[in-house]
Design a protein that fits this description.
heterodimer, A: alpha/beta, Beta Polymerase, domain 2, five-stranded mixed sheet, 7 strands, 24% helix, globular, B: 371 residues, alpha+beta, Cytochrome-c3 Hydrogenase, chain B, four-stranded antiparallel sheet, 46% helix
Chain lengths: 152, 371
């Protein structure tokens, strides 16, 4: 499907979704509460079939966090980007690790680096940071490493 | 670090492999639950070589951050640099000279061969055969010498810059690459005689580490790991960049879904890389090797994503720009991270001794996983 067809199809699935203009791939903004439902439909719908989550990350905008999901279909080779705005004081969103298994590790990384709580994640523990790392979320803009070797 | 070492209430034993273990090729720590010799669970603990490269890049300019990426997947240093350069060029909307494009592709393919050579030697060594390591390094050194002559470095080249390549190729470059191709072709049969056809080796590899095509996609596996399960995932074919759409090569696919299939993909992939280099080495266009760019690069506000195929799979660079001289946020999608997450699925139910064969065919580079 091309971007226009995808746009129409996804508007039917989730009428509250909004689209961004002028991006590399079709970018869809969804509310955190709607994300899991839409993601399930994107994976299961036979004409969409987004079975490959190739990137999952988070961006700290200081006022809020944005979750970003890059999706690809191994059957149709169309790509979309899902985005969801999270509250910075207590970021939480449903896990997608039950839909795409790769999200298990990626969400653990986002959890420890940004402090996003993934509801329903089977194993939300530290992955990269050492055990006993408390509270500090290193990828947030507010985090300043006391020993910064490359401060310019 | 891990307190739960010992036995579980069910009587299973928990053991550690790594962080310092010869078979992990770096500081990877696996906590393995075993029942007798049968693996019940494999749990990777990462971060022993985590340098927070993504955070570091936020305070580096668009020219500086590329150097850091050589230190991630150091065996695909050229290809990492290439991805970053392409992503910055996408943001700047500049077209690079065709000479630079061809040089970049030749360098990428030489890197891919060098990476697979090292993997082949190390893989055989993991399974107890020491000699292949020297055979692999004999050819790999030739590539390193070619790199050293043109790029000035043997491992972390930093040769690709936004706008093209840093320096023009050395006058000897074409001759030495052709010599390497001749050498490689005369030696490749030794690889099959030494390892591929060896019955002990085949018995240790076949049927070990089964990964179904559905799982390979779901776990985000790419590169030879996915291709060994018959999943078409070659970014060079699917989303061509540079001159990959103008050269003839086949995407190597195997349907065995086991360690031996992944092994065969890499061996056959080296031949395809040779095929690409042969088509390009005599056809490097004349002209500039670098486009004119400003001294200080500023990307417009927006988001840019570039996917490339490294020796290990799909590498992605995601730049979020606010219009300044440094990126607001950078995400590196590393192939090893996703490939490693499938290890638990592969290993469950198999014997502990087979774990080395599975890890070997995943071709893990730990700095690439930890970033």
């Amino acid at each position: 499907m091309n971007n226009e067809e995808l746009k129409i199809k996804i508007s039917e699935l989730l009428p509250t979704a909004t689209f961004e203009e002028g991006t590399q791939w079709l970018t869809i903004n969804v509310a955190p509460g709607d994300l899991h439902l839409l993601a399930t439909q994107l994976r299961q719908d036979t004409s969409l079939f987004f079975d490959y989550l190739f990137c999952l990350t988070c961006i700290d905008w200081k006022t809020h966090l944005t979750m970003v999901y890059h999706l690809d279909s191994t059957k149709f080779r169309h790509n979309i980007v899902l985005k969801s705005k999270l509250d910075i004081s207590s970021p939480a969103i449903d896990t997608v690790s039950d839909i795409w298994k790769t999200a298990n590790f990626h969400e653990r990384e986002v959890y420890e680096m940004f402090g996003v709580n993934f509801l329903g994640h089977p194993d939300l523990r530290l992955l990269i940071l050492p055990d006993g790392w408390e509270g500090k979320r290193p990828m947030l803009k507010s985090f300043e490493d006391p020993i910064n070797m490359i401060r310019l | 670090m891990v307190e739960e070492i010992g036995t579980t209430p069910e009587g299973d034993i928990i053991i550690n492999v790594g962080p310092q273990h010869p078979a992990t090729h770096g500081v990877l720590h696996l906590v393995i639950t075993i029942n007798g010799e049968t693996i019940k669970k494999v749990e990777p603990h990462l971060g022993y070589i985590h340098r927070s490269i993504e955070k570091m890049c936020e305070s580096l300019t668009y020219r500086q951050f590329i150097y850091v990426t050589s230190r991630m997947d150091y065996l695909s240093a050229h290809i990492n640099n290439h991805a970053c350069a392409l992503c910055v060029e996408k943001g700047l909307q500049i077209e690079i000279p065709s000479r630079a494009k061809v040089i970049r592709v030749i360098m990428d393919e030489l890197t891919r061969i060098a990476s697979h050579e090292l993997w082949w030697g190390a893989m055989a060594m993991d399974l107890g055969a020491f000699t292949p390591f020297f055979h692999a390094f004999r050819e790999r050194e030739t590539i390193n010498d070619i790199m050293e002559e043109t790029c000035g470095a043997r491992l972390t080249m930093n040769y690709m810059v936004p706008g093209g390549v840093m320096l023009d190729i050395h006058p000897n470059f074409q001759k030495r690459v052709k010599d390497f191709i001749t050498l490689y072709k005369s030696k490749i049969s030794e690889y099959d005689e030494l390892v591929t056809g060896n019955i002990i080796f085949q018995n240790r590899m076949k049927g070990v580490g089964y990964l179904s095509p559905e799982d390979a996609i779901s776990f985000g596996c790419t590169g030879p790991t996915a291709k060994g399960s018959g999943v078409s995932s070659d970014i060079r074919k699917l989303y061509p960049y540079e001159v990959y759409d103008q050269v003839q090569f086949d995407e190597v696919l195997e349907t065995g879904c086991d360690s031996f299939a992944r092994y065969m993909v890499r061996i056959r992939e080296m031949n395809q890389s040779i095929r690409i280099i042969e088509q390009l080495i005599d056809n490097i266009p004349e002209g500039d090797f670098q486009a004119k760019t400003k001294a200080v690069l500023k990307l417009p506000k927006g988001e840019f994503y570039q996917r490339v195929e490294t020796a290990r799979g799909e590498f992605g660079v995601y730049i979020v720009s606010e219009g300044g001289t440094t990126p607001y946020r950078i995400k590196f999608r590393s192939p090893g991270f996703s490939n490693l997450s499938a290890l638990d699925q592969m290993a469950r139910g198999s014997k502990l001794g087979d774990l080395v064969a599975m890890m070997g065919t995943l071709d893990l580079v730990i700095p690439d996983i930890d970033r």
